[in-house]
Amino acid sequence: PQLTGREFVSPGLVRTQLWLWFIGMMVLTLPWHWAGLLGMPRRMAYFDYRNPQIAPEAWTVIIAVFGGALLVLSGLLFIWLLAFGHKSARNGVAEYRFSVALHESATVPRALNGFAVWLGLMMALTLVNYGFPIWQLMQIQRTSVPAVYEGGAP
Questions:
Q1: Residue 106 class from Cβ within 10 Å (0-12 exposed, 13-18 middle, 19+ buried)?
Q2: At what angle do helices 11-37 and 58-86 cross, to 10 degrees?
Q3: N or C: which end of the chain has fewer CB within 10 A?
Q4: Residue-wise over 67-105: b if at least 16 C-beta within 10 A, else e?
Q5: Average pLDDT of each block of 10 consecutive residues along the chain (154 residues)?
Q6: How far apart are alpha carbons 31 and 54 in whole angstroms?
Q7: Is the pTM of this model over 0.85?
Q8: CA nearest to 67, candidates 122, 1, 20
Q9: Which has the closest alpha carbon to 145: 42, 48, 21?
Q10: CA distance 18 to 77
Q11: Phi-psi domain of 83 (left: phi exceeds 0; alpha: psi -120 through 50; beta: other)
């Protein structure tokens, strides 16, 4: 209501959507953390769970799929709530007031009070974090694709 100026369709459905998101996120990510603690490699394009070394971690993928399904369901419910909330009656929500600082702050430099510096920093960090690994991957002549996918015998 504070953002849209309209009544909730159903406060119960809003709480359900929030809990679905929380539970879905926990069910999706906690098995990944557990598998990492067990030594499963990360950022692999292909896992063969028939390999006896990583077969014990296959259950984490199965559980993560259920968590992902809960997240999708929560996302769809969120979109539904927004769509039908837009059609609901307007409410007279009081203006939202942020907390007031205990001590008055000094003036912030103009450059830090806009998006330009922060957007530039974000773009620079993105280039540094992803540019070099992507460049390295582009230098690889051949990836390690199993013979099964190259038309060879399984």
A1: exposed
A2: 160
A3: C
A4: beebbeebeebbeebeeebeeeeeeeeeeeeeeeeeeee
A5: 75 94 96 83 73 80 93 96 80 73 78 85 93 86 60 52
A6: 14
A7: no
A8: 20
A9: 48
A10: 10
A11: alpha
Residue pair 70/20 in contact (Cβ under 8 Å)? The answer is yes
Task: Output the CA–CA distances (angstroms, integers) from residue 52 to 21, 55, 142, 153, in the order listed.
Answer: 34, 5, 26, 21
Please give the pLDDT value at position 146: 57
Residue of 2, 15, 143 whose CA lies nearest to 78: 15
pLDDT for position 25: 97
Name the amino acid, one letter, at 119: L
What type of residue sits at position 91? N
Residue type at position 54: I
Q: Do 84 and 9 contact (CB within 8 A), yes or no?
A: yes
pLDDT at 148: 54
